[in-house]
Amino acid sequence: MHSVEPIKWKDEGVVMLDQRRLPTEVVYHTYRDYREVARAITEMVIRGAPAIGVAAAMGVALGVRQSKSESITDLGAELETICETFSKTRPTAVDLFWAIERMKGAFREAVRSAGGLDLAAVREAMVQEAKQVHAEKKAIDEAIGRFGAELMPESGEVMTQCNAGALATAGLGTALGVIRVATEQGRKLRVLVPETRPYLQGARLTAWELQQDGIPLTLITDNMVGHFLKTGKVGAIVVGADRIAANGDTANKIGTYPMAVLAKEHNVPFYVAAPVSTLDMTIASGEQIPIEERAATEVTHIQGVRIAPEVEVANPAFDVTPARLITAIITERGVARAPYGETLKAMAGVEKGVGSRG
Ligand code: MRU
């Protein structure tokens, strides 16, 4: 299944497609220093929770590889600094912290099996682990896509929010992975794509990604969401997630919460598609999810052109949709439904195949 690749590990460094410049320019950058990778995450060269996780894993591997440390102790101390740098890039996407912990675990394991002596082997193991994280995303998205496709209508309109596609996961996409698999299975879907102000991930990225794959779409502005849900023609909504609390409350791109409220009003099923790495079982509810506040210029300007006077601005990048508005949460291990407190716990369990299906 074709889909765009936002990030790649190459011997010379981490190569990323610059998502800030899409759809007008397709530009790749090669990062040779882990601090550049961290900056690329903060500045949205790469974005979307799972892709941020892949970038962080590769960035940590790059940092360990470029380190001049000559002992495991020094390298371990440097790893802490590297991980600290990544942990400050974007606060809401829990995949970032998941990836950092995973790379720390890989380091411990590599040191143990190298007997604490072979630095080259430890460095190589970190690179392999980052590549593995990336490879897993593809398989995970395909599984999410298969579970989710069964929940899509046979034909007609579906709606999404932001960009939860290949650009956002480094795989098939979560929400768009569901739509891709459903389309491949022969469902005749048209995707309603809200532009997703202020950063326009819908207009710039989702519209571009779907167009590349020949999936029919209609671009709408954010304030058209209610109008289109009221028509009765939208068979389902499927969105991604940046962090899902233990009770199912879900943080996703700003605008997701009002979409879920409107979906309830108009009886449209509202699905969240996300990998298990997006579950944060350490927090009880969405109240505890940190919401990133981004620069005012994203609101006062569009593509560098000022559209508002110099006034006070709010720019929360995410909102939290309460679990009661979510019809089901689709992960690579199956489909969880309420009561999420129980089903997500099973989903987050170590064994594959747990959680309710369908
Ligand atoms: O600010 P962004 O572009 O990183 O926000 C992205 C989203 O909100 C996505 O819906 C979410 O990360 C899921 S991506 C599969």
- What structural category characterises the helix and strand content? alpha/beta
Termini distance? Answer: 23 Å
Estimated share of beta-strand residues: 15-25%
Query: Would you list the SSEs in sequence order as H and E?
Result: EEEHHHHHEHHEHEHEEEHEEHEEEEEH
According to DSSP, the number of beta strands is 16
How would you describe this structure to a colleague?
This protein starts with 6 loop residues before the first strand and ends in a 10-residue tail after the last helix. The protein has helices at residues 34-42, 49-66, 72-87, 94-113, 119-149, 166-169, 175-184, 201-212, 225-230, 256-265, 297-300, 340-348, and strands spanning 7-10, 13-17, 28-31, 155-159, 188-194, 217-220, 234-239, 243-245, 250-253, 270-273, 279-280, 301-302, 305-306, 318-321, 328-331, 334-336. The strands form four sheets. It has a seven-stranded mixed sheet, sandwiched between helices. Strands 11-8-9-14 form a four-stranded mixed sheet, covered by helices on one side. Strands 1-2-3 form a three-stranded antiparallel sheet. It has 358 residues and is α/β, with parallel strands linked by helices. Mean pLDDT is 95; it is low at 350-358. Bound molecules: 5-S-methyl-1-O-phosphono-5-thio-D-ribulose. Residues 47-50, 93, 162, 164, 168-169, 174, 201, 240-242, 252-253, 317 line the site of 5-S-methyl-1-O-phosphono-5-thio-D-ribulose (MRU).
